[in-house]
Amino acid sequence: MIDELRQGESELRGIFSRFRRRDFSGNEGQAIKNSTFQLATTIVAKIGSLIFTILVARMLMPELFGLYSLALGTIIFFSTFADLGVGSALITFVSRNISEKKLGKAKYYFKVLLKYKVVLIFIPAIVLLVLSRFIASTYYNKPIFFALVVGAIYIPLNGMINFLNSALNSLNNFKAPLIREIIFQILRISLIPLMIYLFLKTTSPSVLVAILILTLSFCYCIALIYLAFITRRKFAFFKKEMPEKISPEERKKLIQFLIPLSITALSGMFFGFIDTLMLGHYVDATNIGYYSSAFGLIGAAGALLTFMGSALLPIFSRLKSASLEKVFRKSVIITTLICIPAAIFTFFAAKYILLIYGAAYLPAVPLLKLFSIFLLVIPLIALYEAYFISTENTKNIAILLVCSTVLNIILNYFFINYGLKFGMFEALIGAGVATILSRAIYLLSLTISKKILLKNNNL
Questions:
Q1: 227 in Cβ contact with 161 (< 8 Å)
Q2: Which of 262, 266, 321, 325 is least enclosed by beta carbons within 10 angstroms?
């Protein structure tokens, strides 16, 4: 272990040396460049989200902030239906065919996946529209009906942004998504607090939350326009190419790639949101606000640490055997070196971190300390998922994630209900413990599955 850590330190020094020399040649150089832009995008997104959340949480206070978080979380839950593996398939197949100079096939994959995406983004939007009253009035029994209706606008906009991001990533272009993120964060930080200031005292909570979701959708719309313009320009070389139809075997391979990812996306949807969705049924809006504040901070920190998985996916897709294993091992070592100090710092500084939201959110300190464990788990999960996707072993992820999701639902049900015997806040602790356990087991399963895969391939 000590030797591996020393190797990690050596790799970090090598990366800094490349930056000084501005040497981004080869796969390692491209990986560093991608990671740099991805990290910059993530930093902008999470710093912007942090500033935004601080402003919104302070202006709304726990109860209204809880309603906003529950409404947005529910909308995002439905929006995950709009991907079902399309983004990963786009990066994997388009990137690979472009690198192999098979531009006709790359264009065909792009067009097929775009059609699939358009269908997918409207189905969950319509379903949410139909179910919005039942969800708000019967399941949650909270005033978020109008916000869920507006969510039908949010879903297509967010879905197309994700598709275009993946398209640009397939070209190893991580700069445009960074600029898009800057545009979005500036708009969001400027407009949402303005809407709260204008309507907080003059409208009902139900209408106010709907206005905030509508304003958020407008911010996505502006960002999407920019991204569409850049994508059109970067893919201009496609205009001269005729789509080259793929063979039945290649089509079968695409379907076999997508089906497990679709199952993975559906499972991941429950895996990521089941705690909040279940708590929305059992606890009041104020406690939702506490849970969302703590989980939001960890989510922001976790996303900062998972940038490497997203940045390395196009590189992983182009590497084979020993080269892939070498890059993967280096990535795990470097990620671990970063995650351990981050988790320790979060645990001991939880009280002071939460003060940025205001004293009203200090009851969430035990939750933030508990969630610090996520910082050791989430980044490694992202790396292992990128590895399996790049090697087209998506079936492994699908099986493991489905099993972990079922376990997560069961654990949340029992831990939340057990916690409710003592109080609503104890139910929040129960949800946190259940979610951490299920994700830790998922990571362990990914690790074991990878070892079995390498053994079977004699690597």
A1: yes
A2: 321
